[in-house]
Amino acid sequence: xxxxxxAAKLFAxxxxxxxxxxxRNPIATQQRVFDQLLKYGKQTHFGKDxxxxxxxxxxxxxxxxxxxDYEGLKNYVTRIVDGETDVLWPGKPLYFAKTSGTTSGAxxxxxxxxxxxxxxxxxxxxILHYIHETGNADFVDGKMIFLQGSPILEHKNGIQxxxxxxxxxxxxxxxxxxxxxxxxxxxCIEDWEEKVDAIVEETINENMTVISGIPSWVQMYFxxxxxxxxxxxxxLFNNFNLFIYGGVNYEPYRAKFESLIGRKVDSIELFPASxxxxxxxxxxxxxxxxxxLNSGIFYEFVKADEFYNESPRRYTxxxxxxxxxxxxxxxxxxxxxxxxxxxxVQFTSLKPYRIVVSGRIKHFIxxxxxxxxxxxxxxxxxxxxxxKNIQINEFTVAPQITPTIGLPxxxxxxxxxxxxxxxxxxxxxxxxxxxxxxxxxxDLIRGxxxxxxxVTKVAKNGFQDYMKSIGKLGGQNKTPRLSNDRSIVDKxxxxxx
Length: 497
What we know:
Blueprint: H1 3-23, H2 26-41, H3 45-49, H4 58-64, H5 70-81, E1 95-100, E2 106-111, H6 116-134, E3 143-146, E4 154-156, E5 159-162, H7 164-168, H8 174-177, E6 180-181, H9 184-187, H10 192-203, E7 208-212, H11 215-229, H12 233-236, E8 242-246, H13 251-261, E9 266-273, E10 276-280, E11 289-291, E12 297-303, E13 326-332, E14 339-350, E15 353-360, H14 374-385, E16 391-400, E17 409-418, H15 423-437, H16 439-446, E18 454-457, H17 462-469
Parallel strand pairs: 1-5, 3-6, 3-7, 7-8, 8-9, 17-18
Antiparallel strand pairs: 1-2, 4-5, 9-10, 10-11, 11-15, 12-13, 13-14, 14-15, 16-17
Helix pairs in contact: 1-6, 10-11, 11-13, 14-15, 15-16
């Protein structure tokens, strides 16, 4: 055992104990965060506009500060981009994380001196919790790769602009710099396909022990490695035993990954976003992720089925329940106030508070009142595939409201690497799982409003081609699992039967 791995275990024990202190006092922890945010918020234009001086309780906060999405906050953000200070948070942000918006074009999410450390610490602490739980620290002596956006930043009015993953790349701890790949030169390549090819060449002869990224894009990397080396990734990298991911559920990809790797590897799920780092998997036996209550973020939760009511109730951490689909609302030390990030979550544990990401509040199917969410379609495809020789690269679901024959139905567009021997039985297995999970969907099938779902095969690389066509290939981008219309699926290349 190396000195570095011994030091990692000692540090892991320290961080674990530190986490235990705040996670065992969740309500008091969140109250401290709330009070601190208000203290700083009073000094800002936003705080003065919303009478922060009059806020003495969460109830006051809900009355004076409405829920907003990016569009609702855009006027304040524009003032900061134009050079104004003390708008949402005292002073100016260190960075703007630039992301793609669906309705507002580019979105600029502020990252401040106070919020930046939490983006870095959360990713580090996720690995340290894994070390503490498993005792496995040997991987710290090998090479680690993080598939991410370019670290090249723009500058305007004293603020740097870039992709979140590119910004975070500037904060890799010194003790990991020698272990980290890809190199700066390759990481700066903008074209994603060219970048992955270069990463393959740079890493193919290295001792890779940790690989991290969004599953769909790591899969592209693995497939290129397989083609180049003519052997499974697990044989190419004998010491690769830890996959770190975020952005999408890993389960639909698991069978394909294990085939590409040639064996099972441990995994850690993260829940990062430009707006904050919200949770990480702290326990290998629990699929839920520990909600980070002490990271400069005050959380509110709105029940998803009440979200579009005129004045939905906003629950705090002490009021949530297991298994309910909540829209996540955040106020942060980056100056986001009662901000709807668009994600929905469900709690899997209340001691400590652990969550799973259940979908996006705008990504659903309810063309007939069925209220289907992302978590349900991911579970259904996992149920239908597990234990069978079926491998799925990517999928999305859309309603078919006006079929040429028969009743409407849900259409599942799936890119297979191993096609089911019996497609009808596979489709029925997905449908059965959906009916077990969603009573509304089951009622529509029983009532002959919908016919059972249909599966349509997508051509090889069909989803990659779609993402490339809309300028979102690679990086942190991902295909929505659900759409309430056919705007995505109409652009996919379908395999003609």
